[in-house]
Amino acid sequence: MSDTVTIQLSPAGKSILVERGTPLRDVLFAFGVEFPCGGRGRCKACRIRILEGSSPASDGQAAILGPDELAAGWRLACRARALSDLKLEINQWESPVLSDDSVFQFKPRRGLGIAVDLGTTTLVAQLVDLAAGKVLGVRTGLNPQAAFGSDVMSRVQVALDDPGLARLSAMIRAEIGDLVAGLTAAGPESAEVGEISIVGNTAMHHLFCAIDVRPLAYFPFEPRETGQRIFQRRELGWRVPGEPRIRFLPCVGGFVGSDILAGVLATGMHRSRDLVGLIDLGTNGEVVFGNADRIVCASTAAGPAFEGARIRMGMRAATGAVAEVSDTPDGLRCRVLGGAAPRGICGSGLVDAVAVGLEKGVIKENGRFAAGRNEWILCPPVSLCQSDISELQLAKGAIAAAARLLLRRLGAGPRDVARVFLAGAFGNYVDRGSARKIGLIEFDEDRVRSSGNTALLGAKLSLFDPGGEETQIDSLRSRIEHVQLSSEPLFEDMFVECMAFPA
Length: 503
Known about the structure:
By secondary structure, the chain is an alpha/beta fold. Strands 10-9-8-11-13-12 form a 6-stranded mixed β-sheet, with helices on both faces. It has a 6-stranded mixed β-sheet with strand order 23-22-14-15-16-24, with helices on both faces.
């Protein structure tokens, strides 16, 4: 018997050769199979169909899928192994990655630099001419750690067990190393890279740097190490011309990482005379308010609903996702990404759908369905159930309450804020009117701006910092006050109040 088996993927028409017994989770993520629950067999997002070959179903799969789906050949990829040659039907998707093409002010430096935004879901790297401030190349990809869960806490749990941390660290270092190698191979000949800046949330910081994640797994969720880490290319095994200083920029505190620090730098909040806000609506929810005098920030466990996790038919913004929902005289109209058949709903579509439901009276202010409904069909087969609305209420309530509390600390309210920048993948696609309708944001729409990838822009700006005893990033970090929401007496009451939808 051969030690290898062949897996054919339909309709992609691709074949891959793997060792017999290989878990399908280890190979299918790169081909479009998602594992939101981290392969724990708690959801159906990683469904695949066996067209040829055999894959026995475990009792756990039977409990999730049911007898009819099992008989039709459906299996959970997170619970299956390649024991023989297989032909699988999987859903293909394309996922847009938010880059940055902003024009920015800079002080020229010699050489090349690379800025990297290490997101929980996506990766993007840009090669920059530091003398001209010009982007010479862009590479994007998916964070391979997502095969262990779409949210950071799933990966933190994996990293708690040996050798989970080492595996996740090696995985992301190799993936970013490939992006860097691709950029430099296509860049100017004989050019050397002098600086590489990486930003990411606190969990990504720890997983890249191989720092013990136990403080992130337990209350009060305060990391012991948040500082900048510097690496050499040989240490990471990267193929890059020159001997660049590779910096993972410092975190602020809690789950407020260097991506938010970079966002503050990118928006210029620290120089503003007006009160400015930055709300990152990605996999986690981070909120910052301030100006040249004072800056306060906090993080919330809001992201899973916005990214599609814990939503019955949720998915991220990829091919087949319902991204917009509107009410027309002819009924509901849904825009599906990629022009494909609908197969799920992403965060922006969820916010739109609930906003429309409130307008139509399908959903009540307390979040319950009206008229005894237990489901609302948007565009078959995509529908919302009661638990979906509850998850959105938890997420939007946390963000709104965090904003209220931080503004209260500054002695201000929503009307005192001159501008609010929405960052992160979800923040750049959500409809501002729908977000206000459900109470996610409490600011006038004309003051709210989609700001693109502020993390990547801030990482680029840091490339022009020559360093020294105290860098611009270090100085900025020391000025930001991190607020631990769980220790704030008023937060729980604000959170409960913000869970209801506005009248």
